[in-house]
Amino acid sequence: METFQRPTNAQWQAIIHNDSSADSHFFYAVQTTKIVCKPSCSSRTPLRKNVFIFENLSEAEKAGFHACKRCQPGGHVVSNAEWVTLSQCYLQINYQKQLTLEDIANEMHVGKTYFEHVFRVETGSSVMQYLNRIRLSHGKQLLRESTMKIKPIALRSGFKSANYFSRAFKKYFEMTPSEYRKSKMKIRDEIV
Ligand SMILES: [Zn+2]
């Protein structure tokens, strides 16, 4: 992986204190969310170890980072579609973490009510429903392709417990995880 510049102490201070006088000097990008901001952005301060510094925005964009919806470092509005896609990528990578709507909205640099609204308009589903679907599809794959027990599958897929996983699974697929696994094994046996 390409290595990017890390913040100096002065740059890091400017980021922590949302110092607008630093805006004309650099942009900061966050590795975990792929968002690039102006130093003055009022979003939650990221972990320093995840921060890269860019002298201009196009370099950051070339490196795969996207303009923040809140501080709009490019000076133009970031489209809802682009931003929702970014949040979906974030969820596809971070589904194993215990995330609340507020955590995700913070990572996406907006308030949770606004985030939920925009996400629903763009995708037709709520943020947590979307996250649940990602978790279920990972859980389903593990049931099919591994011999792991239900509980570790649940935890690895991002569910708080086996019980929570089973309930969500049944609601969505209309069978329990064990029933699903059995049905898959049966099909395999019949093929053999
Ligand atoms: Zn920002």
Strand fraction: 5-15%
Bound molecules: zinc ion
**Biggest sheet architecture:** 4 strands, mixed
* Class by SSE composition: alpha+beta
CATH domain class name of the domain at 1-73? Alpha Beta
CATH architecture of the domain at 1-73: 3-Layer(aba) Sandwich
Briefly note the CATH topology name of the domain at 1-73: DNA Methylphosphotriester Repair Domain
Mean pLDDT: 93
Distance between the termini: 44 Å
Q: What is the fourth-level CATH superfamily of the domain at 1-73? A: DNA Methylphosphotriester Repair Domain
Shape: elongated
**Low-confidence segments, ≥5 residues, pLDDT <50?**
none
**Rg (CA only):** 20 Å
Helix content: 40-55%
Cofactor: Zn(2+)
Domain HTH araC/xylS-type: 85-183
InterPro entries: Ada-like_dom_sf, Ada_DNA_repair_Zn-bd, Homeodomain-like_sf, HTH_AraC, Me-P-triester_DNA_alkyl-Trfase, Tscrpt_reg_AraC-type_HTH
Keywords: Activator, DNA-binding, Methyltransferase, Transcription, Transcription regulation, Transferase
Notes on the protein architecture:
By secondary structure, the protein is an alpha+beta fold. Helices cover 53% and strands 7% of the residues. The chain has a four-stranded mixed beta sheet. Helix 6 crosses helix 8. The radius of gyration is 20 Å and the shape is elongated. Zinc ion binds next to loops. Zinc ion binds at residues 37, 41, 43, 68, 70-71, 109.
